[in-house]
Design goal:
The chain is of the alpha+beta class and about 375 residues long. It has eleven helices and 17 strands. A six-stranded mixed beta sheet has the order 14-16-17-12-11-15, with no helix packed on it. A five-stranded antiparallel beta sheet has the order 2-1-9-8-7, sandwiched between helices. It has a two-stranded antiparallel sheet with strand order 3-4. It is globular.
Length: about 375
């Protein structure tokens, strides 16, 4: 009996090492989901995460990002009347309404307006088909390999879909944009539009804001074909995680479970700093100076493990005097696998003034130049 118990425990331990996340008892309703650490892109939990599925209005993450990146956010224009006649959720646009791209971004991310998405597509690209081309091109740049955009709003269309992993990549890209982060974190927004424009309040459909500790966005979605879809971001104790669920009947609970799991295993961890950083100096009596990173970079490390993070030191073979303490001399790049996750300037710790010979040479050159200018 003792021998059987020992074998059973050994098997359980082996399975636990292979599948640590399943052992934690995290069960989700989603057909597909992913939990990703923001700084590194490390996947902490996944379920059918590479399967392409309809993603409903979470599509508007891409539409909003492209709208923001197009610029001219506060320039007023008249909406395309054909574009705003669309079924489903709406921000309330009417024919000949005067609006701004900023208001349309709020209309997409908060009440999930399909009218806002179509109006933004025409405003940015001139037509919805041309905007779809932009969406798929941007998706390719981000590395979204299991994605095809067919509509700017997320309404069902033949072939329209993405994997949970791709949606996490898109969210990671979008959340680097300060305006996107600010808008998607709002529970409500005051905007002006109409003919003439007047003030209204738009409300966010994302109930996780305020429901789950640390949630700072991002976007809800639903169609009959896609089911309930949800993309969110959460910050706790200096760590940010992204969560995506597709076709999830209990999406609010899924996200809370996954965040509780993730933050129980991920801690804010400082990345290692190379020892004895220095730089050769030419034209100074100080032939070498010490360097120090301008700041310390932190990531959310699973169980504090940063072994997968490497770094590169980028600096010229030597620098010319004079150099003052605090001057940037090089760069420290950190990588998780093949992905650059952050850069930190390398700065001089001390001064390195010009040598007496160099100073004399410079003075002679200045005098000679003045003499030449006289003639």
């Amino acid at each position: 009996m003792q021998r059987f118990t020992g074998i059973f425990l050994a098997v359980c331990l082996f399975v636990g090492l292979l599948f640590p996340m399943q052992v934690q008892g995290v069960e989700v309703s989603a057909k597909a989901c992913i939990l990703m650490e923001a700084a590194t892109g490390r996947v902490l939990y996944e379920k059918h995460a590479r399967e392409k599925l309809p993603m409903a209005s979470t599509t508007k993450i891409m539409t909003t990002l492209l709208c923001i990146e197009s610029g001219g956010l506060d320039e007023e224009f008249v909406v395309d009347n054909a574009a705003i006649h669309v079924e489903g959720s709406s921000m309330g646009l009417q024919e000949n309404d005067i609006v701004t791209k900023r208001a349309l971004c709020c209309g997409m991310l908060l009440p999930s307006g399909n009218d806002a998405a179509n109006a933004a597509a025409v405003a940015v690209a001139g037509s919805i088909p041309d905007f779809i081309t932009m969406m798929n091109a941007r998706a390719a740049e981000i590395g979204m390999k299991d994605t095809c955009f067919v509509t700017p709003s997320g309404l069902d269309g033949e072939g329209h879909g993405a994997s949970a992993y791709d949606m996490a990549l898109l969210t990671r890209e979008a959340m680097r944009n300060s305006m996107f982060r600010e808008i998607c974190a709002r529970k409500s927004a005051n905007v002006n539009f109409g003919n003439p424009p007047y003030a209204r309040t738009l409300y966010n459909t994302n109930k996780l804001l305020g429901m789950c500790e640390g949630v700072i966005g991002v976007k809800t979605g639903f169609t009959d074909e896609a089911g309930r879809c949800l993309v969110s971001a959460c910050e706790r104790d200096g760590v940010t995680l992204y969560c995506v669920t597709l076709s999830a009947p209990n999406d609010w609970q899924d996200h809370q479970k996954l965040y509780d799991y993730g933050f129980s295993h991920v801690q804010k961890t400082e990345l290692a700093i190379p020892e004895e950083l220095s730089q050769k100096v030419v034209g100074s009596d100080t032939q070498q100076i010490a360097l120090v990173p301008e700041k310390t970079l932190c990531i959310g490390a699973f169980e504090g493990d940063t072994s997968a993070v490497t770094y590169k030191i980028l600096k010229p073979p030597f620098s010319y005097a004079p150099i003052c303490a605090g001057d940037e001399v090089g760069m420290l790049e950190y990588y998780y696998e093949d992905l650059c996750i952050g850069t930190v300037p390398l700065c001089a710790v001390q001064d390195a003034g010009m040598s007496e010979i160099q100073v004399s040479g410079n003075l002679f050159q200045k005098l000679w130049n003045r003499v030449k200018n006289l003639f």
